[in-house]
Write a structure and sequence with these properties.
With 235 residues, the protein is of the alpha/beta class. Helices cover 24% and strands 17% of the residues. Strand 4, helix 3 and strand 5 form a beta-alpha-beta unit.
């Protein structure tokens, strides 16, 4: 649930507060702690709020619940939406930073929350999504279908190029179920909300060729360029 998010507010005099927030949505295998470096970099940019959400489908989040109770993509999307929608209602302009599987969660949770959609209705809204090695199914696809068997193993070495972690020694994440990989994307939020796609060229979990294909999905569906950026590992 949203109250488990790792949230930090930077207090400023009211007249100086930017109405900006950054929401980070982790990969399937990762907890918020794995994104401390990224969150710190985001805070340095000066937004009032930086939130790292916890995907409920990570087993550590549900305390060892049995398979029948394992949450999936829809639970992850509903959880992220609680946080994002709350910020939008506060009048925040929200940037979503989504890593790998987190891009699927982001795409599925933003229906009706885009800044352009809310123009004249709310002061806030989601202004952009940044996908870092993001998995991007077509609407109606699930993750397993989208990756076409090309997804690599999730190891610290394979994640070295994602620019989101302190180091390999911290990459041991919670056990993750396959359920979210089987639920289909019912809403392609990337169609309406502008996307920047960061290709992490040394990532062997989501290979660069697959990332480039996903960036193409965004561009085809949105009918506009998505602003592709490339990044290499920092060792």
């Amino acid at each position: 649930m949203a109250h488990n998010s790792n949230q930090r507010r930077v207090q400023r005099p009211r007249e100086q507060r930017p109405n900006a927030a950054i929401v980070i949505i982790p990969d399937a295998y990762r907890s918020p702690q794995h994104y401390e470096l990224l969150a710190a970099s985001c805070r340095a940019l000066g937004p009032e709020v930086v939130v790292v959400v916890q995907n409920p489908s990570s087993r550590s989040f549900i305390g060892g619940a049995g398979p029948a109770a394992t949450p999936g993509l829809y639970d992850d999307a509903a959880n992220a939406r609680l946080t994002i929608e709350g910020l939008v209602r506060e009048g925040q302009n929200v940037l979503i930073v989504a890593h790998s599987y987190g891009a699927v969660v982001a795409s599925g949770c933003v229906r009706g929350l885009g800044r352009e959609e809310l123009m004249g209705v709310s002061r806030g809204g989601v202004v952009r999504m940044l996908f870092i090695a993001g998995i991007v199914p077509w609407e109606g696809q699930n993750v397993n279908e989208a990756v076409e068997g090309m997804l690599g193993a999730s190891t610290s070495d394979n994640y070295a190029g994602c620019l989101t972690h302190h180091g390999g020694e911290k990459l041991g994440g919670p056990e993750y179920s396959g359920a979210p990989f089987e639920e289909r994307l019912t809403y392609a939020g990337y169609r309406r909300i502008p996307v920047t796609y960061m290709v992490t060229v040394t990532d062997r979990t989501v290979p660069a060729t697959l990332q480039e294909m996903f960036a193409g999905v965004v561009e085809i569906e949105a009918g506009r360029a998505c602003g592709i950026r490339s990044a290499t590992a920092r060792r």
